Amino acid sequence: MEPQARSVTEHVERVLALVTPLRSVERTPEDALGSVLAEDQYAAASVPPFDGAAMDGYAVRLADLPPDGSPVALQVTGDVAAGESDLAEVGPGQALRIMTGAPLPSGTDAVVPVEHTSTGRFLAGAPRAESSVTLARRPRPHVRRAGEDVRQGERLAYAGTEVTAALVGALTASGTVRVAVRRRPLLAVLSTGSELLPADEPLGPGQITDSNGPMLAAAARAAGADVVRLGPVPDDLMALRAALDEAVHSRADLIVTAGGVSAGAADVVREVLAAPAPGPDGDRGVTDADVATVAISPGKPQALARWRGVPWLALPGNPVGAYASFELFAHPAIDRLRGEKAPGGPRPVALAAAAGWAGAPGRLRVVPVRLVPLPDGGAGAGTTASAVGVVPTGSHHALSALAAADGLALVPPDVEKVCAGDPVQVLMLR
Ligand SMILES: Nc1nc2c(c(=O)[nH]1)N[C@H]1C(S)=C(S)[C@@H](COP(=O)(O)OP(=O)(O)OC[C@H]3O[C@@H](n4cnc5c(N)ncnc54)[C@H](O)[C@@H]3O)O[C@H]1N2
Ligand code: MOO
């Protein structure tokens, strides 16, 4: 008899309880790209820092322009380019040529774009000769006010959010030179199985290439971790212990193994988990061992533990199961190490099924799917306004189906079959 299966949600909770956010480090905003903020970020300065022109044209005093919009001739007394600071006062009846981004000269309160004046346009590099200009009041002042984008002291971002390219821009514009972000986690990725060979070695009878190692290492990097890749290790107790020790020596924050967790006679991960292995310095080797059958397909056999204190996630060896459980269990662990506020792995979106497929009653079925246009443009999909839906990319257990997928559809344990038009939760992979 199979033991009672653990729900995916409960297993995720146990995974998250195994890890804690890493310490913070200081970086420039640019070098912090992809890391997670350790503290809320407040603007050190206002953006823009001064009142400036939003258009190339003429800086004018509104009091000089008739409110009814009729044209008026003004004396042009000079130029203001972006970056200038030494500005003459503009008196009544006067205007200054002004370029986008230049500070508004004192006395002026509006910019009239050049295309709405008697000048028509400025010629780049040509002498600016006009001594007067005829223009009229415009509906908008075309002035960017100091602080209208960001006010000094305003909160720009919360702790626990990832630094994006746009945030690098906003932080830098508002005077932030260093930010505190969580250190990038280091993952040790290790495949087990006596049948496995590294990719560059020719296969003998019964041997296969270790594809989980490179695949999970790539998934870890895509999730924001650095990777030390170990193995493949044969199904041998001492070899696996030695590889786990190597992971500890490389100062891994999390060990992820694939294979050897099931019911087979050679399932060496289970063997290591079952026997504590005291170290020379008195540590207990394996602690907190938790071997579980999780209600998920594929990816059912799972285990958690610490090896000499380092958190360890043991995933099954079947490649699709290994990948699915990486995204569902290891990715949230990486998120938590990285300090993410909501450590849930890839973002789920609700999309409509564009074709029907079978569920796995009693288990969460993970189905590699790709995005397709819905035949009716989404009108029949009821719960979603989206015009795209999803279809399975092939056999649930085939690596080729996974490679063709845009996401993983998650079909709950109580759903026997998915029908075209049904809403499904999809973890987006790209
Ligand atoms: N009697 C039972 N047998 C199995 C059960 C069960 O409940 N009772 N569960 C099945 C399920 S589901 C899975 S998943 C697998 C998981 O087993 P392991 O985690 O012990 O994985 P392995 O036996 O090591 O490998 C399974 C499969 O995947 C291939 N593999 C393994 N590692 C790699 C790798 N690094 N690269 C590419 N391919 C790999 C391996 O050759 C096997 O074909 O157990 C079922 N059995
Ligand atoms: O859990 Mo296994 O990964 O179903 O194939």
UniProtKB/TrEMBL annotation:
Top EC group: transferase
Pathway it works in: Cofactor biosynthesis; molybdopterin biosynthesis
UniProt EC number: 2.10.1.1
Domain MoaB/Mog: 188-336
Top-level taxon in the UniProt lineage: Bacteria
Cofactor(s), names only, from the UniProt record: Mg(2+)
Any coiled-coil regions, as ranges: none
Swiss-Prot/TrEMBL keywords: Magnesium, Metal-binding, Molybdenum, Molybdenum cofactor biosynthesis, Transferase
NCBIfam families: Glp_gephyrin, molyb_syn
Homology family: Belongs to the MoeA family.
Protein name as it appears in the record: Molybdopterin molybdenumtransferase
